[in-house]
Structures are given as C-alpha cells and as structure tokens.
Amino acid sequence: MAHADIDIPDDIARTLVDPKAYADGRIHQTYDWLRANNRVGRATIDGFDPFWVISRYEDLREISLDNTRFPYGDRPVVVIDQASEAFVRNMTDGKLSMFRSLVQMDPPDHIKYRLLTQAWFMPKNLRTLDARIGEIADKTVAKFRGLGGACDFVSDVALYYPLEVVMEILGVPPRDFDLMLRLTQQNFSPSDPDSIPEGLDPADPAFAAKAARAFATSLDAYFAGISADRRANPRDDIATIIATAEIDGRPIPAEDALGYYAIIATAGHDTTSSSTARAMWALARDPELFARVKADPSLIPALIEEAIRWETPVKTFMRSVAHDLEFAGRPFRAGDWLMLCYASANRDEAVIEDGASFRIDRGKTEHLAFGFGPHVCLGQHLARQEMRALFERMLPTIRSVALDGDTDMSQSVFVNGLKRLPIRFELEAG
Questions:
Q1: Range(s) of the domain holding residue 203
Q2: Residue 303 phi, psi (nearest 5)
Q3: Most buried residue, 74, 146, 192, 200, by most Cβ within 10 Å?
Q4: pLDDT tens digits for 217-243?
C-alpha cells in the first residue's frame, strides 16, 4: 500500500497536536475530513513520533474493548512530543510518566486498582449522596440567584459546583479547593495562556514534560500530608482508601497512589464542569430549547446527555499496538501509537445523525464521551447525578437566559471545554 493512501496531509495532521485548534473549532473540521477521507490515517509530524488517528465511532469502540491488542501501558497515554517524552524518561529512569494512574494500567493491574474505589462511584452508593449533592446544588443556585442577572457561568457556577462535590468525596478541605482547581487547569491545559505554570516557557522544547513535572511535584507535596493524616486518622472518604490501599497484600507504590489522587482530584470534576457549562450554553443560545426544558423537567436527562456528547471534554487518548496486525485495512506494527479521537467519534454521521447539531430528541445515544470497555470512566454516574441535581433546581428559578458576549474555549489537545460563558438572565419572582 502506497504511503499516499495512508498518510494524513501535513496541514490536517498538525491540527491534531495544536492546542489552539481545539479552542477555535478547527479540530472539528479536521475530524470531518478524516472521517470522510482517511478514517484510520497516519500522522507524521516533525517533533512527534508517528501515530495512527482513529476518527470513526465503530473503530474507536472496537479498539477500546480490546486491551490485549491495544494496551494503554506501553506508550504515553497523552500525545507528547519527542523532546518532552525524552525529558520524562530521563527523569524517571525510563518510565512513561511521573506517576501511574488507572488510564495507564493494563491487566492484571487495572482491575485490581479500579476495584479499590469502584463501589464508591456505583449508582447504589451514589444514592446515599443524593442529599449532600442536593445541598451543594441548592447553595450553588442561591449563589447564582445573587449574581444580579449576569455572570460568567463557567467561573461563577460550572467550575466550583462539581469541584466541591468531588473534593468532599475525596476528602480535600474547602480551604484547598482553589489550589485543586488551579492544579487541574495546569494539568489539562498547560499551554493555555490562562493556565501556564509559573516559571515555564511554552516555547521550551520540553515544555509539556516540565509542566507535568510541576503538576506532579505540587500534587505529591499536597497529598503526602493528606495520606499521612488518613493513615493516622482514617475517615469515610476516598483519600483514606488510597492512603491505606493494598494490592496483593502489599501497600500500593507511592507513584500509583499519586496517580490515583491525580485522576480523582482533576478528572473527577473538570470534565463535569465542561459538560455543565455546555448545557447552559445550549439553553442560552436557543430560547425554544430553554422553554421546552423549563416546561418539561423530564427532558433534563436528555439535555445532560446531549451536552456530554456534544462537548466530549476528553478529546483524545493514546493507545499502542501489542503485535503486528491489520486493522481497517491498515498495517499496524508492534509498538505503533494510536490517537483515539472521542470528539470525532461522537459526531460520526454513520452512527449519530446530524452529530454537529445540539439536539435533545435523539433518544438513547451510545456516545463515547466517557470512554468504552474496561476503561470506561469511573465517575460517569456521578457526573450525570451532579448535573441533574443542579439543573432540576436551577431551571425553575430562571425566567429567561441568553448569551451575553463571546465564549472562549481552553487550549488543550487532551481535555478542553468552555472557560468563559457570559450570560444574562432574568429570575422568576420569589
């Protein structure tokens, strides 16, 4: 097979690793082209190892189900340039990352570590949190009502509501919420102008790795104290589970504990914030949609599901190929790198009709925003529960809502979403 049949044109390929393309919407033009012209193409970009790009729903779903052929643990799980990968490996005696989290684990470790906290995030246990989540939602709505008819919905509402829920479950005190938010933004969007870690230069060839080191160092310093406290004074929180966890009769390594803290303290709230903001964006730009959902609260779950699908906060994950094989007519070789484009799969016309439009009349949509297969997101049920609790309480208090200026998206190849959503609103009397 000629390279011309495989390789993605350079201008298309470069958008895949350009954080700005994820903020200004060009990435969706790239995804549209890939699905139509090269559903499994190879990106060869200066400064990066080549990687295959998976843009179609069925292909991504098949790969997600198969950890044997397509493992997570053999290559970096986030696309990273060669200079940054070399920097990380030099610092860690050849390891792929500063720490190891669930998304970097394959069998048998993955299920052993997942089971440490899985029960916390299942619907049966989450029902016991209904009252507390409701209290936090009530407090958030009261704050919203006091904003004087205009606000930035992201910074005033969407960021802090899921943050407070997850930090309470994890066991982080309120005085440290702002620290966790800042570290999350630096972790997911280090090259965004609003999130660049202090003292780092995005022009540095190893910037991505140095940003990851800064995040890991700060997180480790913070959770070392939390872990010591929980071992001495156990509580009913996830920090206690992590601090006292054992696998096969031995305490988990420090790098694995840090990875567990990292995934819950960051992904546990940031992705929900993005989807919450996207739901309000949809209501604010479409008065008819707002009127429908306000008049019929039974539509709130459909609004939530569509916001999660349409936003798809986790845009990409990387996997690798365990051995030589053919996939979708492409000759994969052992060690090849794959980019799974979830936001592309969730707009795949072959599966989701009119996928670029925001519609709440789709019925049951098997989107892939939470991943699929063994690595499906632990927090998916909590995210839906939080969003439902908020909108069930907030919508009855709003008479009207509209956009009030330009929105802005974060610049990140990995996880991104709205970082500014100015709205104006009128409240119901009383």
A1: 3-427
A2: -60, -45
A3: 192
A4: 999 999 999 999 999 999 999 999 999
